[in-house]
Write a structure and sequence with these properties.
Blueprint lengths: L9 H12 L8 H14 L4 H52 L6
Helix pairs in contact: 1-2
Amino acid sequence: MARITITLPDDVDAQLRRSAADPRMRGGSAGLLARALIAYGLDHIDEPAVQEAILDVVGDDRARRQRVGKTVMEERWAEHREGVEAAKAKDQAKRARRRTPKDGE
């Protein structure tokens, strides 16, 4: 058997754990329930309901990645702008020191 690790949204994790605790599971764990659901989904992968579920998950993941990417880029640009402003301020201070007459001149 092979192992695979997946990340589940909190609500799906909670639903999986609640469903695994159901007496109809006959003491099965969340992992066993997940394995059964994956096997069922693969056996019925061509069915419209399964295809729709796949499209929903793919769409949700794309939207999440876009949000994360946008946030990261906004943070990078903010850091870049801060760096540019700091460099300008440093350059202006250096120029001002050059223009200021020294004592005794």
